[in-house]
Write a structure and sequence with these properties.
- This protein has one domain.
- The protein has 3 helices and no strands.
- It is flat, with a radius of gyration of 20 Å.
Length: 64
């Protein structure tokens, strides 16, 4: 019944329609997805750069 439903051409047409209807929301979705994947990759490496940057921004260096 659903065989061949999601062929590449169908997905391309759906993507184009979504881009026309929701350009801002898809941009935000892509940004969030990218940040999530970057965070996942960093945590798998054992290096969490975004959280380290937040820690440095939260506690400024004190020079005495």
């Amino acid at each position: 019944m659903f065989e061949g439903l999601l062929r590449p051409m169908h997905l391309l047409v759906i993507f184009v329609i979504l881009m026309l209807l929701f350009p801002k929301k898809l941009g935000e979705l892509g940004k969030g997805l990218g940040e999530g994947l970057r965070g996942l990759r960093d945590s798998l490496k054992g290096i969490s750069e975004p959280s380290a940057a937040k820690d440095q921004a939260a506690a400024p260096d004190k020079k005495t």
